[in-house]
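During the no-cost extension, the postdoctoral fellow (Dr. R.K.) reprocessed legacy sequence entries with the updated structure-token encoder. One reprocessed record is reproduced below for audit purposes.
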Amino acid sequence: MNGRSAMRLARLQETLARGGTIHLSEAARLCGVSEMTIRRDVAASDGAMVFLGGRLVMADNPQYAPVYSVDEQKDSHFQAKHRLCEQAAGFIEEGDTLFIDCGTTLLPLIGLLSGRKQLTVVTYALNVANAVSALPDVRLVLLGGVYYPASQSFGSDDMNHSIRRLGINRAFFSAAGVHEQKGVSCFHFHEVAPKQAAIACAAQRLLVADESKIGVIRPAYFARLGDFDVVITDGDMAPSPESGGPRIVAA
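Re-encoded structure tokens follow.
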């Protein structure tokens, strides 16, 4: 984070310290920069501030529960997500059936599938499915149900059974929180069943998480760190001293 970005964040924090929220457009005018610049500043704020329906709020403000929106997260840690997905792509082999989780962390991985042969992608995320559908040589399996716009994903009571009937070579997971003691978590409870089903049946399970997720706990717990074979991250995570702990891949 450069000095000007830090000064803008300090000005916004001073404004928000009085309570309430400030709209993105108001924040941009206050700092004399574009809305995209404010988004980048907030993405670099280590979670101190978050967007809530287009308005900026301090993350520790007790009046506002944590929220997640794919549209708000698409610019967050953009370059880091690309680096992480480049590492993740190295695990994919020809003919694999891949489970790709919802969210924005794994979207760069889709572009890295182009040119690979005989791949199948299984997902319950509409944004992932849309990206995969543009790849002519990749077969898509979209798991349906009730649509949840905030995460652009589907949920249903029988989705876990559908996943367990599939032969999945590698499952790639995203998370909103990765905590060494409290486990791996996300914002939305409808995501728990498909994540756990894929963990249960995949031959290899890979968690991809940028540094902003490390040490964080979110409402919907879905796995222990030991449930994953590989953790790909740019955050500060030491290899597990426990037997059977995940392999940590630094990006």
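The longest helix spans residues 3-16. The two ends are 19 Å apart (CA to CA). The remaining legacy entries will be reprocessed before the final report is submitted.
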